Amino acid sequence: MTTDPFFHPISGFDLPRFAGIPTFMRLPYVPPGHARFEEVQVGVVGVPWDSGTTNRPGPRHAPRQLRDASTMIRAQHGVSGVRPFEMVRCADVGDVGPNPADIQDSMTRITAFYDGLRAAGIMPLTAGGDHLSSLPILRSLGRDAPLGMVHFDSHTDLFHSYFGGTMYTHGTPFRRAIEEGLLDPKRVVMIGIRGSAYDTEDRDFAAANGIRIVPIEEFHARGPEDVMAEAREIVGTEPTYVSYDIDFVDPTFAPGTGTPEVGGPNSYQALQVVRALEGLNIVGADMVEVSPPFDTSGGTAFLGVTVMFELLCVMAPMIAVR
Question: Parallel, antiparallel, or unpaired for β 240-245 and 282-288?
């Protein structure tokens, strides 16, 4: 199956990778209102917003850096042979325009943007932004029925609040999503959790609601293949969201993030876990928390867009057979 060439990325054999206007993976830029917007099947979205950050800021700048890094992505997966751009019509659908001075208004804007994607039948693949970005996305995708979720991270993001009552930070999105009925906690698995802690509030909430947490010690002891087999059983065949925080990866391989935690997976394991999502009923995915000010080599961004390509390569075959 070969899609319309309009939706194919520009090849490095036709234009050098350092030339041209960078879009995600060198795809055509097809924002809402474009004549061919409703033909898009997978829309790569930028959410340049980090108002939920509580420590080192910078993810608001990630979509620009990720677009630039993504010019190195080619047409074919090196292991599976999947050629996603020939299977489904993909496009860079642009950035959500946030309000950097107002968290609630920004979340309203983000949800509205994703509502537009849903109305057009476009599956989103998102580049954040901090992890609070996931909540307004889920408010769109999980509105009709709660979703399952596979969550790669070093933190649960299940805290109740920060600073005596601030309810919306990058440490609270999935607590809010469960409270709002956007996620089915018994179909949520969080993989890679580690690091020092303030207390056990987040893990207590997880235990009380049936959320499966796989700490990093268990991940390393069992290995990616075994852990991901369990994750697949937990989410089953029902609609599932994938949220990938780049700080899931050890900071040796991904230093450019706001809240790094040592002891994590290496860059190969970072890709292995995504490949193991093949065949799941994925309705959307995000890759968040890349922080360009702390990514002086650009290696974190390149790992981030490689993760996004891996996600696309497990999403595309599923979309193509629908």
Answer: parallel
Paired strand residues for 152: 191, 244
CB-based contact 84:312 (threshold 8 Å): yes
Residues 6+ positions from 239 with CB-CB distance below 8 Å: 145, 147, 148, 281, 282, 283
CA 24/CA 246 separation, integer angstroms: 18
C-beta separation of 114 from 141 below 8 A: yes
Return the DSSP state at 162: B
How confident is the model over 74-119, as pLDDT tens digits? 999 999 999 999 999 999 999 999 999 999 999 999 999 999 999 9
- CATH level 3 topology of 20-320: Arginase; Chain A (3.40.800)
The answer, yes or no, to whether the previous bond of 116 is cis (omega within 30 of 0) is: no
Amino acid letter at 20? G
Pairwise CA distance, residues 205 & 179, whole Å: 11
Please tell me the pTM assigned to this model: 0.97
What is the chain's length?
322
